[in-house]
Write a structure and sequence with these properties.
The protein is an alpha/beta fold. It has three domains: 84 residues, Chitobiase, domain 2 (2-Layer Sandwich), CATH 3.30.379.10; 261 residues, Glycosidases (TIM Barrel), CATH 3.20.20.80; 165 residues, Alpha-glucuronidase, C-terminal domain (Alpha-d-glucuronidase, C-terminal Domain). It is 38% helix and 10% strand. Strand 10, helix 9 and strand 11 form a beta-alpha-beta unit. The chain is globular. It binds 4-O-methyl-beta-D-glucopyranuronic acid. 4-O-methyl-beta-D-glucopyranuronic acid (GCW) binds next to loops.
Length: 675
């Protein structure tokens, strides 16, 4: 078998090599771009939509021997897992479930694209998590909160009668990486989503996604009974409220028998919740859990709360949720953001992980780059999520969710490289042990055919770019543990000087950097807010000691004098300057790498990335100049001689005011006009 499909691969490579002009690509095919020369024979055990999809995918993309799909439970293979082996001149895919066979088909195609000569005789795959869920922050008016790739995919006005082709393309892309759930609407939820009219629309999507193994979930507004049916209260212990939710859940399941359940943001950033009625988060979650339980639905209850119960925002979720450990129903999962604040370019892990011994937890990652340059900057996020897994054992989690970066843009995610984050999220949710390198290898090979070009270095160069990209963003935005230095409102550019009269202090950058003549950083050690004490002893000891605390978390946990000696002998100020400079130099290097890829990448995607890298370059300098010139006022020290000099002045940058539609550092001419 190997020799025959290798031959085909050769023919393909030759064809690619001899084709003088590469086809323009708009990115809409994502990583699913393989096409077979002739349809292979595929045998399925019975007729079903899911198996038909699996067979069609193989006929469209598989270059090797005939394939046989078998529905059978095997030892060591879970319900959604599968095995792939070669037997009697065939490739045999086996799983206990139809969805498992669909995953096997996609996996086979992935092996063909990424490791054609190099996969074992038998492959067994089992998912790390039973729930691998995308969270859409999509509003019913089709805006997307923190979305940077166009409008919401869900055309609520046209649903349920008109179904866009993109719905199925979306389901296919998700299934190809093992995502099996989608929360359709924003956690800042409109109660309207639970109205009967909207449920019919949701039903239409659920019917489309079902053959791809994807269940639908909804974010719900805790005050829905009051808004939709004018109940006088949403108190979770009130019998009328309890009846309301039971009836609503019954209605949902009559339309969508495999409905997944609810995601809830309660008593956070102005959302209603049980605390409005003097009840706890557990009371609220259990109300919904009881209603869903007869249908095996679940509640994902978010721990993203920060009512000012303590002077340090980083401590608040732990303070509120830890005492509730063990009081939640068994079908409640607490959904916790990876870090204790809010999806910053770098955060230590949230101390809630490990602290809730009797409550299932799921991690919430943010795929959309709210704080990492939106869809303008390349920031490959697998290394960030793997960093989290260094502290939080993947097996300690019940499930994993990712805030989607998908919209109506032709290429789905805005930046061609942003699709790598959707891909990486799915792959890590399927197998949390995969390395960032391996995922980048897969994505690049499938997205840009990097292994099939005549260039000996293209693949490794682009992989290097991806792997270095998130650290570069951290360096030019907020190195050494700095966090939340974003401009008011848009979370894009730098504004460490921001001061909005009357605003919540913990929404102001100065609350986090605390720069003064003595030094910079938030003292969360035993001499400060004592947030370090929320971690297990061994980690607490590490974070608490300014000399042992890892550099990357230093200013997260400590207020450090400007002349503090870093492990390499430089002062804190010098080190800060060098990190910012390093971030800028990295982006310059990315530009060079990308420009050298020009002969091997189709024109459309090449030019788009090239243009975006120019924006990223301007923004990196904006960040470096803005932050360093501002902090220098307190450090009162010169820039190290070997560092690239600022090209802006602080006054100039303080005058920058960005409109929502203009997220990038203004050009020098625009800056002049703003004066
Ligand atoms: O990161 C913050 C965002 C809000 C978001 C909130 C949350 C959906 O700025 O836009 O609201 O977190 O996670 O609930």
């Amino acid at each position: 078998m190997v020799s025959s499909w290798r031959r085909w691969l050769w023919v393909g490579c030759l064809w690619l090599a001899l084709t003088p002009t590469m086809q323009a690509e708009d990115g809409s095919r994502l990583w699913l771009r393989q096409s077979a020369v002739a349809a292979v024979e595929v045998e399925i055990p019975k007729q079903s939509q899911t198996l038909q999809i699996a067979a069609d995918e193989l006929r469209k993309g598989w270059l090797g021997q005939p394939v046989s799909l078998r529905l059978k439970k095997e030892k060591g293979v879970s319900a959604e897992g599968f095995s792939i082996c070669r037997r009697e001149g065939k490739v045999v895919l086996t799983s206990a479930s139809e969805t498992g066979l669909l995953y096997a088909a996609y996996h086979l195609l992935r092996l063909q694209a990424t490791a054609p000569d190099n996969w074992p005789d038998e492959v067994i795959e089992n998912p790390s998590y039973p729930l691998r869920i995308l969270n859409h922050w999509d509003n019913l008016d089709r805006t997307v909160e923190r979305g940077y790739a166009g409008r919401s995919l869900w055309d609520w006005e046209a649903l349920p009668s008109t179904l866009s082709d993109r719905y199925e393309a979306y389901a296919r892309a998700n299934a190809s990486i093992g995502i099996n759930g989608t929360v359709l609407n924003n956690v800042n939820a409109s109660p309207q989503i639970l109205s009967h009219d909207y449920l019919l629309k949701v039903q239409a999507l659920a019917d489309l996604f079902r053959p791809y193994g994807i269940r639908v979930y909804l974010s719900v507004n805790f005050a829905s009974p009051m808004v939709l049916d004018h109940l006088s209260t949403a108190d979770p212990l009130n019998p009328t409220v309890i009846r309301w939710w039971k009836a609503k859940v019954k209605e949902i399941y009559s339309l969508i028998p495999d409905f997944g359940g609810f995601l809830v943001k309660a008593n956070s950033e102005g959302q209603p919740g049980p605390c409005d009625f003097g009840r706890s988060h557990a009371d609220g979650a259990n109300l919904l859990a009881d209603a869903l339980q007869p249908y095996h639905g679940i509640v994902m209850w978010r721990a993203f709360v920060y009512s000012p119960s303590d002077a340090d925002r980083a401590k608040q979720a732990y303070l509120e949720f830890k005492p509730l450990d063990g009081t939640f129903r068994s079908n409640v999962i607490i959904q916790v953001k990876n870090g204790p604040i809010d999806f910053q370019p770098r955060e230590p892990y949230s101390p809630l992980f490990g602290a809730m011994q009797h409550t299932p937890l799921m991690a919430e990652f943010q795929i959309t780059q709210e704080y990492l340059g939106h869809s303008n900057h390349i920031a490959y996020l697998a290394p960030m999520w793997k960093e989290f897994f260094r502290f939080v054992a993947p097996s300690s989690l019940k499930a994993i969710a990712g805030v989607s970066n998908i919209g109506t843009d032709a290429n789905w995610c805005g930046h061609p490289f942003a699709a790598a984050n959707w891909y990486a999220f799915g792959r890590l949710a399927w197998n949390a042990e995969l390395t960032s390198e391996a995922i980048a290898d897969e994505w690049l090979s499938q997205t840009f055919d990097t292994r099939q070009t005549a260039s000996p270095t293209l693949h490794t160069d682009l992989r290097h770019l991806m792997l270095a990209s998130r650290e570069a963003v951290v360096d030019y935005m907020m190195p050494l543990g700095l966090h939340h230095q974003f401009a008011w409102g848009h979370h894009y550019g730098p504004e460490p000087w921001c001061d909005v009269p009357g605003a919540r202090p913990d929404w102001m950058p100065s609350y986090y950097h605390k720069a003064n003549a003595d030094g910079i950083g938030f003292d969360r050690s035993h001499t400060g807010s004592q947030a370090t004490a929320q971690y297990p002893d061994s980690i607490a000891a590490l974070f608490d000691d300014v000399h042992r605390c890892p550099d990357e978390y230093l200013l997260w946990f400590h207020h450090v004098p400007w002349n503090h000696r870093m492990p390499d002998g430089s002062t804190l100020w010098e080190s800060l300057c060098r990190h910012y400079d390093q971030g800028v130099q990295q982006v310059r290097a990315f530009q060079k790498i990308w420009d050298q890829s020009e002969p091997y990448i189709d024109r459309e995607r090449f030019l788009q990335v090239q243009t975006l890298l120019k924006t990223q370059m301007r923004d990196a300098i904006w960040w470096k100049d803005g932050c360093l010139l501002y902090f220098q006022q307190y450090a009162d020290m010169p820039f190290p001689a070997d560092m690239e000099r600022p090209i802006h002045t602080l006054d100039e940058l303080k005058r920058v005011k960005l409109s929502i539609s203009n997220y990038e550092c203004p050009t020098p001419e625009e800056l002049n006009r703003q004066r």
